[in-house]
Amino acid sequence: MAARVRGCLIGAVVAGGLAVLVVAVATAVLLRRGGEPPPSPAPSPSPRALRVLEEKRLDERRMELRLRSQALEAETGVRLLLPEGWSKDAGRTWPVLWLLHGGLDGYTAWTAKTDVDRLTRGDDVIVVMPDGGRCGSYSDWWNGGRGGPPRWETYHLKELLPLLEARYRAGPRRAVAGYSMGGQGAMLYAAKGHFKAAASFSGALHILQPGVPQAVMAGTALGCFGTDWRRIWGDPERQRAIWRAHNPYDQVARLRGVRLYVAAGDGDLVEQLANRAARAFAERAREEGIDVRTHFTRGGHNHDTWQRELHRAYPMLLSALR
User: What pTM, to 2 d.p., does this model score?
Assistant: First the structure.
């Protein structure tokens, strides 16, 4: 029972609130191609934008960084899994796999709750697991039109990515995967042109499906208590263009040339919502002539499911890095 509740809580902020529609109802929160183009080069890092406050080697593979981000106006963390032979002064770079966590989780979740360390051991890649906030939605928040922090997308793509390439021997070949909220983030970041492959596990890939805007309200309330849900993308009607800009379903044409993997289960109510969104996204991609590999199963909205899906998607992600 505890595992089931935990799975529902983790799903609370799928794509800024899709999965929370179920949680909220249950708790009465709601009121009723062709060739593959190379990845985009990273922008030049600015020392003032992102400062390394602490660098700690936890063991032979795990390194943890404590950072001060200008885009977030806050401190944040990132965990790395380093390949054999890695060093900061090596005469080579390594391809990179980014793994994005879901809502109510943090940057240590992938190593704490899955076997990603064992899975990637022996492979010649750097694994990057950044913090994305409890309800960050992998977005630069609208904040009533004022912008400003938190700017998660800017932090990840314009601060962290170039820092890793400048100081930690990360190369230009990149793939990205994520679960729940991180699945949405993986597709949004791939649509920006920085990744050659992207995988979503139980991600909300269509945030404008009926009922989802109301779920964003509940998801933000549960994930970031006291935060106005409209700070993220604004009102879904009056700021419709902003919502579409953060909706993988509406951005699918920008994923042409990216290798795609989409998975979702139907083992619980939360996962059924993610399943609906994933199917809509996959259908839209195929209408655009974009190939997407799908895997729809009986799995639930939990880390056991996401670990299995990472194993299934991993060969595709790895091949995109070679």
Answer: 0.87
